[in-house]
Amino acid sequence: MNTDLETSIKRLGRMALYFGCWNRPGHFLHDTGGRSLYRHERLNNLDDLPWHEGLMDTTLLRNGKVPDVPDGRVFWTCGGDKAFWYAFYWWDRSVDTRGACNSGFYVRGFGWPEVQAAFDYACAQFPHVVMRRRDFR
Q1: According to the 3-state scheme, what is the secondary structure of the chain?
Q2: What is the pTM assigned to this prediction?
Q3: What does the pLDDT look like over 27-79, one tens digit per residue?
């Protein structure tokens, strides 16, 4: 693993965020306690997160030309300039049943290649999301 990446991981630590509906319709970025993180908070406290809500809210899926079908498939990408993050995202109708609804986990604190470990960590941080989506694959 790259030394700069290792240093960043140690300095910033692990974090998982969830974008989607918590318990009712409305797609927001949430911390592990369910608190919505609004844009000004992200700019002040999460300036290392490489994706903004416009990308989280269906654009990552649409850019990948993934059909709007909530079939349990989870897609992922990774990146970041200030820190290395994984993004795991999927079409989701488990709370909001309208079309074009998606959810995702955004995870920091893992290196390359630690895709499965990062996803498992996010699932452990958001068990109620995972319980709604028993069809992950």
Answers
A1: CCHHHHHHHHHHCCEEEEEECCCCCCCEEECCCCCECCHHHHHHHCCCCCCCHHHHHHHHHHHCCCCCCCCCCCEEEEECCCCCEEEEEEECCCCCCCCCCEEEEEEECCCCCCHHHHHHHHHHHCHHHHHHCCCCC
A2: 0.92
A3: 999 999 999 988 666 656 788 999 999 999 999 999 999 999 999 999 999 99
Check residue 87 and give its pLDDT.
98
Q: How far apart are CA 23 and CA 76, in angstroms?
A: 24
47 touches 41 (CB < 8 A):
no
